[in-house]
Design brief:
CATH class: Alpha Beta
Radius of gyration: 18 Å
CATH topology: NADH Oxidase
Strand order of the largest sheet: 1-2-4-3
Strand content: 5-15%
Number of strands: 4
Bound molecules: flavin mononucleotide
Number of domains: 1
Helix content: 25-40%
Distance between the termini: 32 Å
Shape: globular
Order of helices and strands: HHEHEHHEHEH
Largest sheet: 4 strands, antiparallel
Length: about 190
């Protein structure tokens, strides 16, 4: 794919909060997971596990973990046929040491990159996605038998976008968020 092609996929992606009920083939999901697996990570730690939930009954139990009365925002999760749960693993010692020295848990950066790899591949597959940071972690852990010692970082809903899913994209202007050769605009 050309550089232009990557930008086009990025421009087309937006969070989808309305889904068709039709199921998604595992082939497509596997290519999205492969894109996530190939994501870069600090010290190449790859400190993640991706749990795909495509069993309808299990999905019906997972959806309430992301959308209860305190989280009405996420009610669309009941529609999405697939949920991908991204779990943080401890990572290898060199990565942990690096994080301690720098006082920064790079795994959160890493998982964000992997998540976006997943979502861009999904876009290229004709699928819609939405990343979810709001969910009941304890309930998700219990439902999917994830040890309490591990952090559930993110959930991604996946499915075919419903007809009313498109909306204008709001972004800060290019000039506001970019600088050349230093923070101050005068350095340009
Ligand atoms: C870490 C993270 C957590 C998010 N959590 C939620 C969420 O819980 N519910 C939701 O509807 N959208 C969630 N979003 C989606 C953002 O609201 C969305 O990406 C942002 O508004 C930009 O819109 P766009 O994705 O359509 O370009 C999340 C996005 C990220 C990156």
């Amino acid at each position: 794919m050309t550089r232009q092609g990557v930008l086009e996929v990025i421009q087309q992606r937006s969070s989808v909060r309305a889904y068709e009920s039709r199921s998604v083939s595992r082939d497509k999901i596997e290519r999205c997971l492969e894109a996530a697996r190939l994501a870069p990570s600090a010290c190449n730690a790859q400190a993640w596990t991706f749990i795909t939930v495509d069993d309808p009954q299990l999905r019906d139990k997972l959806a309430p973990c992301t959308a209860d009365k305190w989280l009405p925002l996420n009610h669309f999760t009941y529609q999405a046929p697939v949920h991908v749960v991204m779990v943080l693993e401890p990572g290898k010692l060199s990565a942990q040491a690096g994080g301690l020295i720098k006082q920064r848990d790079f795994r959160w950066i890493d998982i964000g990159i992997a998540a976006e790899h997943f979502c861009l591949q999904a876009q290229a597959e004709g699928l819609g996605t939405c990343m979810l940071g709001w969910f009941n972690e304890r309930k998700v852990q219990a439902l999917l038998h994830i040890p309490k010692s591990k952090t559930v970082a993110l959930i991604i809903t996946v499915g075919y976008a419903g007809s009313d899913s498109t909306r204008p994209r709001h972004r800060k202007p290019f000039e506001e968020v970019t600088r050349w050769n230093g923070y101050e605009r005068s350095s340009q």
